[in-house]
Amino acid sequence: MLDVQRFTGKIAFVTGAASGIGRATAIAFAAEGARVAILDRTEEALGETAAAITRAGGEALVIACDVSQPEQVAAAVARVVATFGRLDIAFNNAGVENKAAPVAEIELEEWDRIIDINLRGTFVCMKHELAQMVRQGGGVIVNTSSGAGIRGVAGGASYAASKHAIIGLTKSAALDYAKQNIRVNAVLPGNIETPMMDRFTGGDIQKAIDLEPVGRLEKPEEIADAVLWMSADLGAFVTGAAISVDGGWSL
């Protein structure tokens, strides 16, 4: 039987929590007992997520943070520890999609934007999260990669490169900290019902549905279920894994 309070007493940290996967996962952590720090670029964007956590009977700490800015990330982690005393679970989910273009036509500024947010942002978050988890004696990190992290995407080289790299970062960190009671894994979504998918398809969601072997888009809550499993004791022997939750899209 599922223990619906798996995270009572735990402190969770979720980036990109204003919408989509981040929002669904933050709410799910709260519903199962965690106190949740929710991060996105502005506090205003986090209002709906914070309200949903409160309705679920949870407690949210709202933090404005641009993960591409290292000083903001350091301050955010420090604030969580100052408020709650520790950091048990980090879900590094913040990310952006690229402007579709073949490789030779990608502007350098666009390449840097994708890498700064998706890859460098994940690294910087991990750097500060891991330091805290070492100090306190353990923790769990889950990073959002993508089905695009294990296959090519025509017109999406910068995004695919960032998501491939997140898997390498995840696996390496898992080895670095395995003996320090810290697990590090990655979740690989496919085509999800999120604002990002709306933007990427120009509103033509059927294009994304047609790519899914199961014949529908995935719901953010289905990714949240996987993240919570990886973060809970049920996943205690899983580290360095890159788990596809994509309806078969990446096969």
UniProtKB/TrEMBL annotation:
Keyword NAD part of the UniProt annotation: yes
Sequence ranges assigned to domain Ketoreductase in this UniProt record: 10-199
EC number(s) reported in the record: 1.1.1.47
Annotated PROSITE patterns: ADH_SHORT
GO MF: glucose 1-dehydrogenase [NAD(P)+] activity
Residues annotated as signal peptide: none
UniProt entry keywords in alphabetical sequence: NAD, Oxidoreductase
Pfam families per UniProt: adh_short_C2
Recorded family membership: Belongs to the short-chain dehydrogenases/reductases (SDR) family.
Protein name: Glucose 1-dehydrogenase
Species whose genome carries this gene: Glacieibacterium frigidum
